Amino acid sequence: MTRAPSRGPSSASSRDGGAPISRAPGQPQTSPIQARGTAPGKFDDRRLLLRASPERRMAADGREPYMLRQRLVAALRPEGLALKDVPDCTVTKTGWSLRCVTPQIRDQILGARNRVLEALQLVNIETPSTWYNYVVPDLPSSFPDFTGRGTVLIENLIKDEVKAQTGRIPVDFRRSRHYTPGAPKGTWIISFTEPVPRFKLFNAGGESRII
To answer: 60 and 53 in contact (C-beta within 8 Å)?
Structure first.
């Protein structure tokens, strides 16, 4: 995931548990696939990124990687999936990173995407990719509605506003982990699969900065 001129992209895979790839200052970070010498466009990473809603992540609280593997195996038992096929699962900022023993197992799970999403209460299943992350500070937590008699939470507005300001649909958007619940303002992290120019949201807050 990368931003602005001063830094290069960081990969979703390194952020979600893989080792970071070293690079010279100012040099874009190579994707984990290319770093292993694989031709661009050919994907052989065996991991899957299991994305959960913030509420689901808070409820799990990092306690259940093994139980998640068990539930996955139960959901795909008709296909013959076994625990040995998914030997490792680690907690990430957006859910879990699941390691499959072969690319075929990874593709088998992707082929049953809808069943897996339902069984594990996920919002998405993704293969590792490069994300560009932008921090946007001082955004209001809510806005008064047009009548002035109610409020609208920023969570219900931010995706559409990001698209309006950047022309891109974000792959992820979340509050900073430093946010204090109930605070009137907070910082958000917005992620894309490609760099975007600096932007502001809601005619409020600070300008985006790549991290």
So the answer is: no
